[in-house]
Design a protein that fits this description.
With 391 residues, the chain is α/β, with parallel strands linked by helices. It is built from 14 helices and eight strands. The chain has an eight-stranded mixed sheet with strand order 3-2-4-1-5-6-7-8, sandwiched between helices. The chain has helices at residues 3-30, 59-68, 81-91, 100-114, 121-133, 138-155, 160-175, 201-214, 231-242, 255-269, 286-299, 320-332, 351-358, 379-386, and strands at residues 189-194, 219-222, 245-247, 273-276, 305-314, 336-340, 362-366, 374-376. Among the domains are: 79-180 and 379-391, SRP54, nucleotide-binding domain (Four Helix Bundle (Hemerythrin (Met), subunit A)); 189-334, Rossmann fold (3-Layer(aba) Sandwich), CATH 3.40.50.
Length: 391
């Protein structure tokens, strides 16, 4: 072969090999691969491992895992039904363990009273101040302490410990009442939830729905809050999570018609109960309260029966909650109160005047964010917790 032919070919080969080497080096510098990865040329993406509760773990480990992940619906974990039941029972709070801020109001005064040997005027001043700070209210505080004074005199009580027991007994008698939620004889039962803006009506309905489904009830949720943006979506999320049906209408539509349709839908499908949301409204606005009264009337005209009108009150509102209860009771014949955020407020003393002055029982309280943290109100446990020493 002629040298003139060989030299150009060799030069061409050297250029090709050099280019390939240079390309490989540059690719390596960038951390890239020239060859496609194994598995058919599809890039493999490493997924983070799923965090599941080990079904073989003991109960304490399950509870701790649920708490640390802030698990709301424990059934999402791969555990058997018995473990699920035990974990839920462990996570379900009690009133005594969740009224810390309100207990803190009383604890200093209780300690001071118990440090004295005999009942004194200072004891009465301490009790009055503690109740006012807890938002029991002037009228209710005066009435309650007057009754206790009479009991102390009649029974001949002389020690601070006896005085505190008399106060506890009077408080318990004033807020005791049936917490039972009533069902109609014929399906569907209708429960209407009312209250001002932002108190947690929709969330309360979701938690109540979960509780009822766990009891074997079939539930329809009515998205009667047609004015708040995303209210229906929020209720829909709760319905999906707890296995309830949802009936909603057009945004800005007539809430009465939505609830009426929900009752009809529940009746047609044989569902046990309708939980009806309503738009939040200021209790000082007469026209809005009249509209709510209409919602109440329409809800009772269809196939169902309204057995409960539950007023949802934020415990943080304190004495304003009493006025809310008064106005809503006038408009809708409120049958019970659900007091939310009791675990985060020092103003839970408002339960006394609501029950004592208006005769409306406190039926449920919210003690946290999860679905398990809506619990039946226990008046004895509530009062006892207030007088427990803070460690």
């Amino acid at each position: 072969m002629s040298l003139l032919i060989v030299l150009p070919i060799a030069l061409l080969v050297l250029l090709v090999v050099g280019g390939v080497v240079l390309l490989v080096n540059r690719s390596n510098e960038r951390g890239e691969a020239l060859d496609p990865p194994i598995s058919g040329g599809v890039a493999l993406q490493e997924s983070p491992p799923e965090t599941l509760i080990d079904p073989d773990a003991d109960v304490d480990e399950l509870v701790e895992a649920a708490r640390s992940s802030e698990a709301d619906l424990i059934e999402s974990a791969e555990v058997d039904e018995e473990f699920e039941r035990i974990v839920e029972e462990e996570l379900r709070p009690t009133i005594g363990g969740r009224v810390g801020r309100l207990r803190n109001v009383f604890s200093g005064y209780v300690t001071s009273i118990l440090s004295r040997s005999q009942i004194s005027d200072q004891d009465w001043d301490d009790l009055e101040e503690a109740m006012l700070l807890a938002d029991v209210g002037v009228k209710e505080t005066t009435s309650l302490l007057d009754s206790v004074r009479a009991s102390v005199k009649k029974q001949g009580l002389s020690t601070p410990a006896e005085l505190l027991e008399a106060v506890k007994a009077e408080m318990k008698s004033r807020i005791a009442g049936s917490t039972e939620l009533r069902f109609a004889d014929d399906k569907p039962t209708v429960w209407l939830f009312v209250g001002v803006n932002g108190v947690g009506k929709t969330t309360t309905i979701g938690k109540m729905g979960r509780m009822l489904v766990d009891q074997g009830k079939t539930v329809t949720m009515a998205a009667g809050d047609t004015f708040r943006a995303a209210a229906a979506e929020q209720l829909g999320t709760w319905a999906q999570r707890c296995g309830a049906d949802l009936v909603r209408g057009a945004e800005g539509g007539d809430p009465s018609s939505v609830i009426f349709d929900a009752v009809a839908s529940a009746a047609a499908s044989g569902n046990d109960i309708v939980l009806a949301d309503t738009a939040g409204r200021l209790h000082t606005k007469g026209n809005l309260m009249e509209e709510l009264a209409k919602v109440r009337r329409v809800a009772d005209k269809g196939a169902g029966t309204v057995t409960e009108v539950l007023l949802v009150i934020d415990a943080v509102t304190g004495q304003n909650g009493l006025e809310q209860a008064r106005k809503f009771a006038e408009a809708t014949d409120v049958t019970g109160v659900v007091l939310t955020k009791l675990d985060g407020s020092a103003k839970g003393g408002v339960v006394l005047p609501i029950r004592s002055e208006l005769g409306i029982p406190i039926k449920f309280v919210g003690l946290g964010e999860s679905a398990l943290q809506l619990v039946e109100f226990d008046s004895d446990a509530f009062v006892d917790a207030l007088f427990e020493p803070v460690e």
